[in-house]
Amino acid sequence: MSEPIRHALRKYLIMGSQDCQRPPDEILRDAIAAGITAFQFREKGAGSLKGDKKRILGLELRDICRTHHIPFIINDDLSLAEELDADGIHVGQDDKSAEEVRRMFPNKILGLSVSNDTELAGSPLSVVDYVGAGPVFSTRTKADAKNPVGIEWIKTLRTKHPALPIVGIGGITAENAHTVIHAGADGISVISAITQAADIQSVVEKL
Length: 207
Ligand SMILES: Cc1ncc(COP(=O)(O)OP(=O)(O)O)c(N)n1
Ligand SMILES: Cc1nc(C(=O)O)sc1CCOP(=O)(O)O
Ligand SMILES: [Mg+2]
What we know:
- GO terms for molecular function: thiamine-phosphate diphosphorylase activity.
- 2-[(2R,5Z)-2-carboxy-4-methylthiazol-5(2H)-ylidene]ethyl phosphate binds at residues 139-141, 171, 191-192.
- By secondary structure, the protein is an alpha/beta fold.
- It has helices at 2-8, 24-34, 51-67, 78-83, 98-104, 117-121, 150-160, 177-182, 192-195, 200-206, and strands spanning 11-15, 38-41, 72-75, 88-91, 109-114, 130-133, 166-169, 187-190.
- Strands 1-2-3-4-5-6-7-8 form an eight-stranded parallel beta barrel, surrounded by four helices.
- The longest helix has 17 residues, at 51-67.
- The radius of gyration is 16 Å and the shape is globular.
């Protein structure tokens, strides 16, 4: 399991319609053509879709991922993950507990956010497939993001957990992504670096 996960974490796009200035399906197709390795549907925050509109968009994006063999992961919404038969689920420290999600979905990819040593110490790492560590840098995309951890904490995390699949998140760009990888992360996850890019092909190549 560990090697496919590490590969999937390399260039991980996270996106919802609220992040997009053009149709989300176009952005996802462009990002897949450019080489992303996983996708998380995160329909959340100001301007996000609810109910049927969210479900319909999720279904459309899931089908694009399926066609191109890209893991389709859903943020937070367990019932939508079940309904769309998502490949995985990402939860944070304030969402349903990772142990419970693992009991409900024994075979799905499960990601958990960690943002500091206290959260790390309280996290059931044995039941998750990867951790999303961050925000590495400051970000304007998530209003309630915690304090930036910096690449030093990614190094600490890697030293403490040599075999743990880690993806960095938060404020990661084509210019700073290499520092996150050099610090020990298996990959980087981004929202704005890709959704706001004038040239997605070029950004994904650099990432
Ligand atoms: C890969 C990845 N890492 C971290 C997060 C953040 O999850 P969470 O802390 O639950 O915050 P929301 O995304 O739900 O606002 C993530 N989504 N993906
Ligand atoms: C969704 C999310 N979670 C974070 C965390 O630290 O857990 S930071 C973040 C937003 C990432 O967006 P951008 O790539 O535009 O900075
Ligand atoms: Mg969450």
